[in-house]
Fold this protein.
Amino acid sequence: MVKHGKKHRNALQLVSNLDLLSHKDAIAKVKSLSFAKFDESIDIDVNLGIDATKGDQVVRGGVVLPHGTGKKVRIVVFAKGDAATQAEKAGADFVGAEDLIEKISQGWVDFDFAVATPDMVAPIGVLARILGPKGLLPNKKLGTVTQNVGAIVADLKKGKAFFKNDKQGLVHFSIGKVSFDVSQLQENFVTFMKTLAASKPAASKGKFIRKVTMSSSMGVGIGVNLEQVS
């Protein structure tokens, strides 16, 4: 059983009797209750009306947040020739082909996203056991396997982030940092929620977004009124 500190318990008491809040008020409350000494992320957990055991109800996608996530991301690109040059100009942190594959095969995974051109998909297959479990393997459905590597690198640097439901049918997502203005977090939240709503699988019936909870990294959860999410 997890034993929380005094500050966490005090924050929990302050929200124990709260009604569901509008997303703007929830953001303000989360910011006011933040007590960590570092710039916490503001995270949301969304309970979806899907059967997570069925492949045709998987929810996944990507979204460019208007104000980014507040995180500095490191991007590797598997590419050659003009595509490699394009990736470097767009701001990729590491660009390579066989040399990059060899480096990663030896255990180096000091990056947040991996992008590849289509011709590099087969060669990087040897890295599947390393990158797959970490969610770092380039994926065509997410746009990280593409010939236009410059565009996806630029989007990732701007704050594009990906989401996917877990085994319980939940989506966990960060909309920014406690240091962001309420208005910035509000715009990020609305942008994400609209993207998530549009990703509803055809096989999912009934209410898609059932519950939304917001918290800071170390903070307590606050329920968001779904009727006011727009």
About this structure: The chain has seven helices and nine strands. The helical segments are 6-15, 23-33, 81-90, 98-105, 128-131, 149-158, 182-198. The CA atoms of residues 47 and 203 lie 17 Å apart.
